[in-house]
Specification:
The chain has 224 residues and is an alpha/beta fold. It folds into two domains: 13-137, 3-Layer(aba) Sandwich (Rossmann fold), CATH 3.40.50; 143-217, Thiamin pyrophosphokinase, thiamin-binding domain (Jelly Rolls), CATH 2.60.120. Helix content is 15%, strand content 35%. It has three helices and 13 strands, in the order ββαββαβαββββββββ. Strands 1, 2, 3, 4, 5, 6, 7, 8, 9, 10, 11, 12 and 13 form a 13-stranded mixed sheet that branches. The longest helix has 13 residues, at 113-125. The chain starts with 12 loop residues before the first strand and ends in a 7-residue tail after the last strand.
Length: 224
Amino acid sequence: MNRKNTGTRMKDKVLLFINGDAPESFPGLDEYGLIACTDGAFHYLKRQGFPLDQLDFISGDFDSHIGSDENVYQDKFILTLDQDKTDFRKALEIILEKGFHDVDVLGGSGGEQDHFLGNITVAYHFKDQLNIKFYDAFSEYYFVPKNFTLNNVKNKMISLYPFPSVENITTKGLNWPLTNGSLSIISRIGTRNFAVEDEVSIQYESGDLLFFVGINEIEYPKIY
């Protein structure tokens, strides 16, 4: 995610920053048709030198005061006061209203872990309306459909997390494959696996599955 910005935005995808750990780098902004942040994320964007004029909106209840920049960026503010919803959820509702459906999220993990779990739960709520992908320093993760294939993943960490359970799951391309298996958060989950083929495929009949793939290749002993 270290590509340069070429200056022109022409895509239908959204880049959304929320208030977890600040990303180590930023993706190419020209890949996105909409760029936004929650009020809490605004602080680390400014601190890391993000071009704030590229933001299309800043949303939240503004309990995280943005200080002297308030007047400069006031035209980008969208005030959302509903205390029964998180800032992340309210930002996704705005994105839907604007007609976008593909959302890359940075800042979804790190910090207080109840926030991370809350962010996953919000993404689950929107999984049939939005294609949400989270990115952090270690992995990208998202809910996957019942028939799913991913390429170019050999030697990368793969984790399968049921939400809360998955039935009749079969995987190919993993070091520890499953054949018509079951996963459940109270009995068996599928974390810390890794891909032994360039292509990993997953099929399951029921439930919902959160899929993690590592950013970098990992070193495991060779299997003969």
